[in-house]
Amino acid sequence: MLRWIDIIKNAKYSNPEPARRVEKSEEGWRQQLTPLQYQVTRQKDTEPPYRNAYCRSYDPGVYACVCCGSILFNSTEKYHAISGWPSFTQPASRGAIKYTFDNSHNMSRIEVMCNICDCHLGHVFNDGPEPAGLRYCINSASIVLVELE
């Protein structure tokens, strides 16, 4: 289980080494993604709160990166945070997420990205439920639900 101190250490010193890398040109990403997905995942934008695909969805499955298909979150870790975006308590694996400090918009936050393709997902905060106290606030445009059979 990841804790806030683990997130800070990853952002400050070193993220887990990814099992593989997926890299494309900007034109390659534009061809693969919808305009909203491109704007969120490659240009680090944020989709509107509450009016997104997974904010109120609690279907079973796993959430994968919309860019490279890597598994990022399990639906069992999703909870209703009343933030306007899907929220998770833990990533699917320790190496699924890449962390970096983000001081944009006059805020100090920790950005979360796919560790395989650097897709912008959202941010992680230390105001989530116990036991770890983490809240991964994720853009629906950067993930896709893969339902389990």
Give a verbal description of the structure.
This protein is of the alpha+beta class. It has a single domain (4-146), classed as Peptide methionine sulfoxide reductase (Metal Binding Protein, Guanine Nucleotide Exchange Factor, Chain A), CATH 2.170.150. The chain contains three helices and nine strands, in the order αααβββββββββ. It has helices at residues 4-12, 26-32, 35-41; strands spanning 62-65, 71-74, 78-79, 87-88, 97-102, 109-114, 120-125, 135-138, 143-146. The protein has a six-stranded antiparallel sheet, with helices on one face. Strands 2-1-9 form a three-stranded antiparallel sheet, with no helix packed on it. The longest helix has 9 residues, at 4-12. It is globular, with a radius of gyration of 14 Å. The model has no long low-confidence stretch (mean pLDDT 95).
